[in-house]
Amino acid sequence: MARILMAKPGLDGHDRGIKVVSLALRDAGFEVIYTGIRKRPAAIAATAIQEDVDAIGLSILSGAHLGLTRKVLAELESRGAADIPVIVGGTIPVGDVRLLREAGAAAVFSTGSTIPDLVQGVRDVIAARWAGVPA
Amino acid sequence: MDELTTDCGLPVARLYGPGAQHGPIGDPGEFPYTRGNFAGGYRDRLWTFRQYSGFGTAEESNERYRYLLSQGGTGLSVALDLPTQCGYDSDDPEFEEETGRVGVALDTLADAEILFDEIPLDQISTSFTINGTAAIVLALYVAVGELQGVPRAKLRGTIQNDILKEYTSRGTWIWPPKPSLRLIADTIEFCAAEVPHFNAISVAGAHFRDAGANAAQEMALTLQDGVTYCDEVVARGRMTIDEFAPQISFFFYTHGDFFEEIAKYRAGRRRWATIVNERYGAQNPKSAMFRFGVVCGGASLYAPQAQNNRIRVAYEAMASVLGGVQSMFTAAWDEPFALPTEDSTTFALRTQQILAHETGVTRTVDPLGGSYFVEALTDAMEERLIAIMAELENQGGMVAAIESGYVQGLIAQEAYRHQIALEAGERVVVGVNRFAGDELPPDTQGYELDEKNRERQLERLAHVKRTRDADRVRTTLAELQAGAKVDDCNLMPLLIDCVKAYCTVGEMVSVLKDVWGEFTQPVSF
């Protein structure tokens, strides 16, 4: 069973989206670990390694997605865990999707994404990781 | 034949007629206030048009506020950035991405002075969406008032100050429930004694709703929070319900199910009046009044075919008025994907003005009172509220139900059900899952605090720290810390001393964290 860490970095407390996605992933057969809100990037990276997850899902609705995603990726790298793919969701402007992908996010889901698309997207990212190809 | 229900599941019959008994209605302005708080309704006084706004630095927000007032706005509603809400200063490296992003940054009294520059605080009422640091923001407002020569007794406004829903839905908690409730009780007592025209708390269901709760859950959870706060103040034994209840107000989202929303407000008003009288033995009729503000918009708005949001907001505003609202914020149609522009904000304000001055809904008090359907739905809603509140009591009361994650689970499950119904097309949203075109939704536009403004904020903070009286800072913070260790010491006067000494929000919060610790969030979905 694939394991995913769902995490909210930064101070943004809007957790409706991350909980809906967590429930949807659980119903789709994933094992979901949710960190709760206001987690520091270092703590998210440490938890992901400790829980040996297949992927991390970040949810950011405050607009601070670029800086926070970069921080989480840097924390993973500094712990030798850059292979754990990071998927980002939230109110992401189209122009920032490319920037997030360039920064190293494996996939990006903006407002309006549907549950089937999200579930398939997470499956693809995890499958790509284990097949050893970039998503 | 299919059973029809409202969005939250209240049954709706094909036709309603005479003969059915309904709950107590009374006259407007009389217990149990089903028909409204005031005998004169909107004839005597319109609701307040209050548009939520605030971003970047104090200078930018001050300019937007003065613009809104010049366009006929009658009150301010201040949005604060997340570091201010969570008790961190703008120069905290951990949260640099968040400074000035979702609201204005307030670090010290110096920022507050600029924020309210040329805004006469004895004439304008100001509402702050602030919770964890509400007591500190109240202290800042009192201090700015003094600098303007406006005495406390003349200040009007509201601090949200509702921490319980932060633990479950909004997330700007700082300390654990016990000391947080104590600080809230301190502000309620302080306002009752010294700032009589200021609402010390706005018990807010809106955030339960935005997090996924349905209309009945939103109202029931809010009423249960209100009971929790009143219990806290009454248990101290220093004030009777009649001394502080008139300064409690409420805050909700109005979504799209027109009659359900009207019934929600009518039932909520009747339930609160009944609780205040029966549970606390209130004597003053004002104590039992359920005064509330609303937001029209939020999770009921969608990015695809975004212009449709204008129509959604207009219907929601009308439902709010027919439900007897005291204060209203109509969201801008572009809110789902952008920081509203001056144009879209002005249009949202015009929506309320057309409703107030053109449609005629204000001519008579509670025009729907006695409607067979509306009264039946009000009764059904109230029954649902009683059932949800009884379950919360079963869970050990609100604090226990939050600490166990029960409330969070309830809300998350409802959000998930809603999303599934939406994607399955069971809940129709025009332009989203029916009558959808193939045009792309507009792109999200974030607000970027430009580097110059961020630097201005940091420079101001650095300047304050350089030039303030360091001894006075140390002394006032030490007194705050000492006061926090004593349960029956009201902290408001001590916070006002700190603020006047130009202590930062982060310094005051961290002194209190040393005494009280921090909240540990139960993770539940």
Written account of the structure:
The complex is a heterodimer of chains A (135) and B (525). Chain A is α/β, with parallel strands linked by helices and 135 residues long. Chain A has helices at 16-27, 41-50, 65-78, 94-103, 115-131; strands at residues 3-7, 31-34, 55-60, 86-90, 107-110. Chain A has a single domain (3-131), classed as Cobalamin-binding domain (Rossmann fold, 3-Layer(aba) Sandwich), CATH 3.40.50.280. Chain A has 5 helices and 5 strands, in the order E-H-E-H-E-H-E-H-E-H. A 5-stranded parallel beta sheet of chain A has the order 2-1-3-4-5, sandwiched between helices. In chain A, helix 2 (41-50) packs across helix 3 and helix 3 packs parallel to helix 4. The longest helix of chain A has 17 residues, at 115-131. With 525 residues, chain B is α/β, with parallel strands linked by helices. In chain B, the strands form 2 sheets. A 9-stranded parallel beta sheet of chain B has the order 7-6-5-4-3-11-10-9-8. In chain B, strand 3, helix 2 and strand 4 form a beta-alpha-beta unit. The two termini of chain B are 35 Å apart. The chains are: A alpha/beta (135), B alpha/beta (525). At the A-B interface, helix 1 and helix 4 of A face helix 3, helix 6 and helix 16 of B.
Question: What are the main properties of this structure?
Answer:
heterodimer; A: 135 residues; Rossmann fold; 5 helices; globular; B: 525 residues; alpha/beta; nine-stranded parallel β-sheet; two-stranded antiparallel sheet; 20 helices; 11 strands
